[in-house]
């Protein structure tokens, strides 16, 4: 197993539900620890130039109450910003996105160690959840945390991200991510047959047969 694929094993995942103003929402949570000071992790998650190095280019009025836009991806409003511990944004994509928010929480464990948590809460169309379960967004967030990991350790993103996405290493990473989200879904109480079907659909989406 490569060091990149092994990063899957450093993330704790949870799946749950929550009531929000728009109704019943689904939640996915990722938690891992970084050997970096909380100020460095916060800066990596909020400085536009650094975000572009490990995630996507971001533009907008990047302050509390302002709006942001990730190139080719989500946009929304900055709802809470409490440096260096809490960032919450609406996470909207498409014409009728519905309720969707992402919250990043940081906790210092000493001077050079930080617990990172990311929770995505969204009202998901039943047909999508029934087909893919939590892996639909979970695999993508695993990829984001991998990018942050490589950035914080100084390794940097692959020189050719598109080529890497098609590599055997990336395919194994996404397959294992899908499996781990299936395990988290089962731990939340989902029936084994539902977990198997959604994990299979997620894997086939992210890792199509060659």
How does this model look, in words?
- The chain has 210 residues and is an alpha+beta fold.
- Helix content is 40%, strand content 28%.
- It is built from 8 helices and 8 strands.
- It has helices at residues 3-6, 38-46, 48-54, 126-132, 135-152, 161-165, 168-187, 192-206, and strands at 12-20, 23-34, 58-60, 67-70, 75-82, 86-90, 100-108, 114-122.
- The chain has an 8-stranded antiparallel β-sheet.
- A hairpin with a 2-residue loop joins strand 1 and strand 2 (23-34).
- The longest helix is centred in the C-terminal third of the chain and has 20 residues, at 168-187.
- It is globular, with a radius of gyration of 17 Å.
- The protein starts with a helix and ends with a helix.
- Residues 35-142 form the Activator of Hsp90 ATPase homologue 1/2-like C-terminal domain.
- This is SRPBCC family protein.
What's the layout of helices and strands?
Blueprint: H1 3-6, E1 12-20, E2 23-34, H2 38-46, H3 48-54, E3 58-60, E4 67-70, E5 75-82, E6 86-90, E7 100-108, E8 114-122, H4 126-132, H5 135-152, H6 161-165, H7 168-187, H8 192-206
Antiparallel strand pairs: 1-2, 2-8, 3-4, 4-5, 5-6, 6-7, 7-8
Helix pairs in contact: 4-8, 5-7, 7-8
